Amino acid sequence: PKPQSINAFFYIKEDAEAIPKRWISLTGLKKYLNQESISSKDLTKPLQLYEPEPKSGIARNRKTKTSEIGKLYRVDHYRYRDGVSIITIISGTAENLNGIFTLGGERRTAIVREIETDPLENFALPQVNNRFLVYLMTPAIFRNGWYPERIISLLEKEGINLQLISAYIPNYIVISGWDIQKRAPKTLYRAVPEGSIYVFEVKKGNAQDAVKNFHGKNISDVNPEEGYGFALVGKI
Questions:
Q1: What structural domains and CATH numbers belong to the chain?
Q2: Which residues contact 116 (CB under 8 A, 6 or more apart)?
């Protein structure tokens, strides 16, 4: 069952100024997860990485090839700055992936190459006490809203009881997509956004055995094989 009362990490006054969003470097994230101080050098403004390019349009009737009244839409696109790359972890062989491909909804040209180093190899499983935090690097879709009930229930079957002590979860995001085979939209989900944090306390069992089920694992209830709910464990 969901906990009746959850303490928040931050209490924000109504008249408080919103904190601007920043991207954190892997070095900075490693510091944070190890309870070390981070500096402004570890943070990057979004506009330093990409430029928003919102586009508007109107839906068309496939049979008549004419526009449909009242079906205006807006799509948020992003143009990445020179030198910015996207790293993807895949299973299987990558020998056929090196080269030039089209990427994205508008099929823009992209160069794909294999890298020899794992950017996450320095994130070793930390030694924790009875309390630890779970940091979501990618959005997670949980059956029970924001609460990761499935993995907590699985650990209970292994003799490990966890209590959710606190959580920092911004507003939900909406995730969908396009099914190429079915030529139809994928199911629409409300997801816990990346950057969300959960703090757990081990009430029964071994803490190190508990964190092994979170660290470097996809804990999303839905589509974990697609990378949803990739988590890292930190000290607290």
A1: 7-42+120-235 (2.60.40.4350), 46-112 (no CATH)
A2: none
State both tokens at 179.
Answer: 């099914």
Q: Give the bridge partners for 230, in sequence order.
A: 218
Instruction: Count CB-CB contacts under 10 A for residue 68.
Output: 11
Q: What is this structure's pTM?
A: 0.81
Digit-coded pLDDT (tens) for 57-92:
888 887 887 887 778 888 888 888 988 888 887 777
Provide the token pair at 204.
Answer: 């029964």
Taking the C-alpha atoms of residue 40 and residue 61, their distance in angstroms, rounded to an integer, is 50
Task: For residue range 205-228, list pLDDT tens digits in order.
Answer: 999 999 999 999 999 999 999 899
User: Which 3 state secondary structure label does DSSP give 33?
Assistant: helix
Cα distance between residue 159 and residue 153, in whole Å: 10
